[in-house]
């Protein structure tokens, strides 16, 4: 059974590489798949999409080792807009960059290593 | 260390992101320092990919409307630490002079943050750099998961990530920390020594 690593989502298992698009953050609409205001024409069959073909459409790289599949982030258009993301704090509470709208933000990385 | 800026400045926050596949390793520091700003943990290094970051500490500045006010840059570090550090760890046992240079760089950076928040100076409104080959990040993410699960292939995918994005110290150091914790510092310093000046952190005179 394939394990799918998609962005920061917890890796999940699926019976095959045909998955419900909701699992990767896309909604099925009659005219294709939508995430927010962005829609991509793409076939949805019995509520499932072919993940690798969809990744090719979005020009996302796909790599795998055996049954573990990892998908790169879709390429973003060049923009001055800071990319939004959601990550947990030490207590597991989720924060998004956009929660800080209205303040100036210094986003800074560090690591224990 | 960013807490002082958050305490002092209004309508401003820091969001810190630990690029740490070992969640607990990052959590230990956060529990010790208890910052009042959001201190997030990014096990799969997503922010590094989104912002085209290759080393820590890297930062971007974002204005009130969510626009990039200063694109990706190293946050207040220069190369002074390279020549004078005790090589058994990353803790910086430095000469007085080296220490002074490092603190000077750090202070100049926090002063720049202040002037940005208070006066709008030091803005450089440019898009973020390209994350490079995002296949590198896919290989890296796959490798961290394989490592976590004890599955075969982790080393090969780490190596592929580094090959595709050789400038990423994030990849190299995270892979070393996970795979060779006992030999971490020797390998790290060997790699740093093989790196030309100005290519780990920027040279002080270029800051």
Q: Describe it for me?
A:
The complex is a heterodimer of chains A (113) and B (207). With 113 residues, chain A is mostly beta strands. Chain A has one helix at 51-57, and strands spanning 3-6, 12-13, 18-19, 27-29, 32-35, 38-40, 49-50, 62-65, 68-71, 86-88, 94-96, 104-110. The radius of gyration of chain A is 16 Å and the shape is globular. The mean pLDDT of chain A is 92. Chain B has 207 residues and is mostly helical. Chain B has two domains: 3-128, Glutaredoxin, CATH 3.40.30; 134-193. Classes of the chains: A mainly beta (113), B mainly alpha (207). The interface between A and B is large, with 50 and 79 residues. β12 of chain A pairs parallel with β1 (12-19) of chain B, so a sheet runs across the interface.
Write down the CATH topology of the largest domain in chain B: Glutaredoxin
DSSP strand tally of chain B: 4
- The rough form of chain A would be described as globular
- Give the chain pair forming the largest contact, with residue counts: A-B, 50 and 79 residues
What is the C-alpha radius of gyration of chain B, as a whole number of Å? 18 Å
Instruction: Find the count of extended strands of chain A (DSSP E, 2+ residues).
Output: 12
The CATH class of the largest domain in chain B is: Alpha Beta
User: Which architecture name of the largest domain in chain B does CATH use?
Assistant: 3-Layer(aba) Sandwich
Shape of chain B: globular
Discrete helix count of chain B: 9
Give, in spatial order, the strands making up the sheet with the most strands of chain A.
Answer: 2-1-9-8
Oligomer: heterodimer
Total of helices of chain A: 1
Compute the average pLDDT of chain B. Answer: 91
| SSE order of chain A, one letter for each helix or strand | EEEEEEEHEEEEE
Distance N to C terminus of chain A = 33 Å
């Amino acid at each position: 059974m394939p394990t799918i690593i998609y962005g920061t989502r917890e890796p999940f298992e699926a019976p095959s590489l045909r998955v419900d698009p909701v699992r990767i953050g896309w909604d099925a609409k009659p005219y294709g798949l939508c995430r927010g205001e962005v829609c991509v024409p793409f076939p949805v069959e019995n509520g499932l999409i072919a993940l690798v073909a969809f990744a090719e459409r979005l020009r996302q790289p796909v790599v795998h080792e055996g049954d573990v599949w990892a998908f790169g982030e879709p390429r973003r258009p060049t923009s001055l807009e800071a990319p939004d993301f959601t990550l947990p704090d030490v207590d597991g509470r989720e924060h998004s960059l956009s929660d800080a709208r209205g303040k100036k933000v210094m986003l800074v990385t560090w690591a224990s290593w | 260390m960013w807490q002082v800026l958050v305490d002092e400045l209004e309508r401003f926050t820091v969001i810190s992101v630990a690029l740490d596949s070992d969640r607990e390793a990052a959590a230990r520091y956060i529990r010790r320092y208890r910052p009042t700003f959001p201190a997030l943990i990014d096990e799969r290094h997503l922010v590094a990919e989104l912002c085209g970051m290759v080393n820590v500490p890297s930062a971007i500045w974002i204005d009130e409307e969510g626009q990039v006010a200063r694109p990706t840059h190293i946050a207040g570090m220069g190369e002074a630490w390279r020549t004078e550090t005790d090589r058994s760890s990353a803790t910086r046992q430095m000469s007085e002079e080296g220490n002074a240079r490092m603190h000077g760089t750090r202070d100049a950076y926090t002063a720049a943050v202040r002037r940005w928040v208070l006066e709008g100076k030091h803005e450089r409104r440019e898009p973020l750099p390209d994350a490079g080959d995002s296949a590198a990040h896919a290989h890296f993410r796959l490798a961290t998961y394989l490592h976590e699960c004890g599955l075969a292939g982790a080393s090969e995918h780490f190596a592929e990530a580094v090959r595709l994005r050789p400038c990423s110290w994030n990849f190299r150091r995270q892979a070393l920390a996970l795979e060779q914790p006992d030999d971490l510092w020797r390998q790290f310093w060997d790699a740093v020594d093989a790196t030309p000046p100005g290519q780990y952190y920027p040279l002080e005179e270029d800051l």
